[in-house]
Amino acid sequence: MKIWASLIIIYLGFFFWYTDLGGELDSEEIDLFLEKLQENNSGLDSEMYESIKSFMENDSGKQFLMVNIIDIDEDPEDTEGAEPGESAESLLGRYMEHMYPQLFKRACHPVFAGKAVSTAMDIVGIEGAENWDQAALMRYKSRRALMEIVTHPDMFGKHEFKIAALEKTIAYPVEVQIYLSDPRFILGLVFLVFGLSLRLREVKK
């Protein structure tokens, strides 16, 4: 029983850290995030502003994955705060060194990342979308967590590094319907097998 109690306590601790139980964003939170976003991004255009606002207003309170498709700029332009002639990989590194701490403390993390091995093999209704370099999926605990990250003071001015490193990119959020690699599912399964194995060993004794 002690083993099962310990496993349950550990799992519940992980579950409550990994899961946003705060529900949907309310109007006060949305207004606050929009205010911070405008303060940190003076160049935010009206179309992007409305897109982000709609994204928050239609919050379900659930986790989601951000799909990122990336084409690296082989000759990035100089940007403020970067070294002259700095490579795209280095610029992305500058961006992510600030991004990762904010992600991990909120149980947000990469799920998948890989490099393209061919040009696009199926394109419909999009021009100039033949060439891509990388693709990645990023898990966010909730829309609240994403907005906390992008409006955090440590992220002020860092998005420019990412923009400078890219020739083009597409990023859009997806709420998962089938997600068998969810760590809550995997950890629960591992603990269940571990606990049953110990129980079986005790019975055999």
Keywords:
4 strands; alpha+beta; globular; about 45% helix; Alpha-Beta Plaits; about 200 residues; 4-stranded antiparallel beta sheet
Q: Element order, helices and strands?
A: HHHEHEEHHEH
First-residue to last-residue Cα separation: 16 Å
Do you know the CATH topology?
Alpha-Beta Plaits
Task: Average the pLDDT over all residues and give the rounded result.
Answer: 89
Q: Secondary-structure blueprint of this entry?
A:
Blueprint: H1 2-18, H2 27-40, H3 46-57, E1 64-72, H4 88-104, E2 109-115, E3 134-140, H5 143-150, H6 159-165, E4 166-174, H7 183-204
Helix pairs in contact: 1-7, 4-6
Describe the model:
With 205 residues, the protein is α+β, with helices and mostly antiparallel strands. The chain has one domain (2-204): Alpha-Beta Plaits (2-Layer Sandwich), CATH 3.30.70. The chain contains seven helices and four strands; from the N terminus they run H-H-H-E-H-E-E-H-H-E-H. The protein has a four-stranded antiparallel β-sheet with strand order 2-3-1-4. The protein is globular and about 70 Å long. The model has no long low-confidence stretch (mean pLDDT 89).
